[in-house]
Design brief:
By secondary structure, the protein is an alpha+beta fold. It has 6 helices and 16 strands. The strands form 3 sheets. A 6-stranded antiparallel sheet has the order 6-5-16-13-8-9, with helices on one face. Strands 12-11-10-7-14-15 form a 6-stranded antiparallel sheet, with no helix packed on it. The chain has a 4-stranded parallel sheet with strand order 2-1-3-4, sandwiched between helices. The longest helix has 16 residues, at about 20-35.
């Protein structure tokens, strides 16, 4: 397949991991030496980065999976391919690391890569008729109890029809990408990232449905919160919204997907998963 050449590349690094800055500078300088326009920025500085994305053809992100999640949300509506350099702990989303980027980047610039599209979720929280916020998630949306070790009651509907009321520490609504994150920690199934499904997984359910449910991409989930103490909505573990009794949350597939640059085999996922978990 003929691919349009990359002309302008963003190199974004983590502001609190000092090592990412030096590697980012090396990649930036190398891209310039290849005749490309390249610019540097911080993964946490959305205000400065977002205005420059419409003219950007590729994003190189340095850090851990948290950095990649931030950039994926920023870039989603621009449909910009992302390639990660893992300088964090697990690096499930990354394609390179500091020891091999010099081998992989020339292949990417030469068009020897494929794009992996990963679905995202859009969530909106409501209090009566007022929105508390709207966010995109690449991993998951989590509705959970606050600091008190007391359950919340989460009345859940699918496409307007009642499903069940979870009595639990919380509820995870996850993409296939997120199936290897919080969902995995509570015993949820592992889904390959190219699927288009929404996982519904309760956290420590008490006398209520305890099994994970796999929904189609087109499902619309509404969760009504019933609690006599504080509850919390978190998005990709990075945004937090305080919830009260009577608040409700809508979750559905986002209109945009994240596009990740891959240079290995298309069946790489399970091999990488086992390696990251130290099982291979």
């Amino acid at each position: 397949m003929d691919r349009q050449p990359f002309r302008q590349v963003a190199v974004l690094h983590h502001p609190k991991i000092e090592a990412t800055h030096s590697v980012a500078r090396e990649i930036h300088n190398w891209l310039i030496s290849q005749g490309l326009n390249a610019w540097m920025g911080l993964t946490w500085d959305e205000e400065a980065v977002r205005p420059r994305l419409p003219n950007t053809d590729l994003i190189v992100v340095l850090g851990g999976d948290g950095s990649t999640l931030r950039v994926a949300r920023m870039a989603a509506d621009q449909v910009i391919p992302i390639v990660g350099v893992n300088m964090g702990r697990l690096g499930f989303l990354s394609e390179m690391d500091p020891s091999n980027w010099q081998e992989i980047m020339p292949n990417i610039l030469a068009g020897r890569y494929w794009l992996e599209k990963r679905m995202m979720l859009r969530t909106r929280a409501w209090r009566r008729d007022q929105t508390l916020g709207e966010h995109l998630a690449l991993n998951d949306v989590v509705i959970s109890r606050g600091s008190l070790a007391r359950v919340v009651r989460l009345k859940t509907q699918i496409d307007g029809d009642p499903l069940t009321t979870y009595i639990a520490d919380g509820l995870i609504l996850s993409t296939p990408t997120g199936s290897t994150a919080y969902s995995l920690a509570v015993g949820g199934p592992i889904l390959p990232p190219d699927l288009h499904n929404i996982l519904v997984i309760p956290i420590a359910p008490h006398m209520s449905l305890g099994r994970a449910i796999v929904l189609p991409e087109g499902a619309v989930i509404r969760v009504n919160v019933s609690t006599d103490h504080q509850a919390i909505l978190t998005v990709d573990g990075q945004f937090e919204v305080d919830l009260q009794d009577g608040d409700y949350i809508d979750v559905l597939a986002g209109e945009h997907a994240s596009n990740f640059v891959r240079t290995g085999k298309r069946d790489y996922f399970y091999h990488t998963l086992l390696a990251r978990l130290g099982l291979k």
